[in-house]
């Protein structure tokens, strides 16, 4: 049995947001006025996350990525990830890197190897401007330690014109001598983040900038279901990729489902409709028929948006409430 939508796409990748809390305040993720945090009783408990994840694995999910908010601020996160590691899945993590040093030994023990770290600037002052918090030295130290320990590290960079797009060359330069993947992400619209595409930086612009400084990069073979187009500068140890959600949607091979911290299943990052799994789970219902029925409502691309319409994405949640 597997989770297949009406376009024949099998969904084996589950992204679970374990909290809507974060120790940063990135303006493209959290609305300027903040968000109303979910009451504790409406959040999935750790045991509920584990039990619901198990039902997804029984439907063929073999990859789980934990996100937030910032997942490492969730109380008793170590217990959660250790229990999830007992499921028949590959575990992955997206984090801002601030608390990573507390978990390196545990991650090594349970076999979690793939970590995405959000890092939007290599300049401490600019990082403070974008995140409203000054953790830059700690984050950079944790990235170095993660690489030293052999973790597979990707850096997630949301590019915003006039803010951090001048750093494209600096991020790619990191891949010269480090086995690291830099992932540039086009600025995407969510409730309250003041999006318009004039602030965006396209894949075409990114590639031009890389070529100007390093020569034309080589296109790499993209893994199945990859959300990024991947490249490498000849002679460099690492690589870089571009997540071009706006200019070149990659929805054809989508295999991802999202579970929000309050137990709602979302078929797409931009989906305005959600399926409540937590309430029926608390009523001891079998979630598998509900999951299989919910996936049938998945649209082919970007929840049916041909172009980004404010009336649509403002009905969605803020990014921090969905999960990174």
From TrEMBL:
It catalyses: GTP + AH2 + S-adenosyl-L-methionine = (8S)-3',8-cyclo-7,8-dihydroguanosine 5'-triphosphate + 5'-deoxyadenosine + L-methionine + A + H(+). Its cofactor is [4Fe-4S] cluster. GO terms for molecular function: GTP 3',8'-cyclase activity. Residues 6-217 form the Radical SAM core domain. CDD domains: Radical_SAM, Twitch_MoaA. Its EC number is 4.1.99.22. Transmembrane segments: none annotated. Coiled coil: none annotated. Keywords: 4Fe-4S, GTP-binding, Iron, Iron-sulfur, Lyase, Metal-binding, Molybdenum cofactor biosynthesis, Nucleotide-binding, S-adenosyl-L-methionine. This is GTP 3',8-cyclase. It comes from Marinoscillum luteum. The lineage of its organism: Bacteria, Pseudomonadati, Bacteroidota, Cytophagia, Cytophagales.
């Amino acid at each position: 049995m597997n989770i297949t939508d009406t376009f024949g796409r099998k969904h084996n990748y589950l992204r679970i947001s374990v909290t809507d809390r974060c120790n940063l305040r990135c303006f493209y993720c959290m609305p300027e006025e903040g968000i109303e945090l979910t009451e504790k009783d409406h959040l999935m408990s750790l045991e509920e996350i584990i039990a619901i994840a198990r039902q997804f694995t029984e439907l063929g999910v073999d990859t789980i990525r934990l996100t937030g908010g910032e997942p490492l601020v969730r109380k008793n996160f170590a217990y959660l990830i250790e229990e999830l590691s007992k499921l028949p899945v590959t575990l992955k993590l997206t984090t801002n890197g601030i608390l990573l040093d507390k978990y390196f030994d545990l991650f090594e023990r349970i076999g979690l190897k793939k970590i995405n770290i959000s890092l939007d600037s290599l300049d401490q002052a600019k990082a403070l401007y974008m995140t409203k918090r000054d953790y830059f030295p700690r984050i950079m130290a944790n990235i170095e330690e993660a690489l030293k320990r052999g973790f597979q590290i990707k850096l997630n960079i949301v590019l915003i014109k006039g803010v951090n797009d001048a750093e494209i060359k600096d991020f790619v330069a990191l891949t010269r001598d480090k086995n690291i993947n830099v992932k540039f992400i086009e600025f995407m619209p969510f409730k309250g983040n003041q999006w318009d595409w004039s602030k965006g930086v396209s894949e075409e612009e990114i590639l031009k900038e890389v070529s100007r400084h390093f020569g034309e990069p080589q296109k790499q073979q993209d893994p199945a279901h990859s959300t990024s187009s991947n490249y490498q500068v000849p002679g460099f140890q690492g690589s870089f990729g571009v997540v071009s959600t706006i200019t070149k949607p990659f929805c054809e091979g989508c295999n991802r489902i999202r579970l929000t911290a309050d137990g709602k299943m979302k078929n797409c990052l931009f989906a305005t409709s959600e399926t409540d799994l937590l309430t029926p789970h608390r009523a001891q219902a079998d979630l598998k028929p509900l999951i299989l029925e919910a996936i049938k409502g998945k649209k082919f691309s970007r929840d049916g948006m041909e172009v980004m319409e404010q009336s649509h994405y403002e009905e969605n949640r803020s990014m921090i409430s969905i999960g990174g």
